[in-house]
Amino acid sequence: MRPRRRIPDAVAFRFVVTASVIERLREATEALNDGDPGPFASMFAEGAEWRGMPRGHLWWKRTPS
Question: How many domains does the chain contain in total?
Answer without folding.
Answer: 1
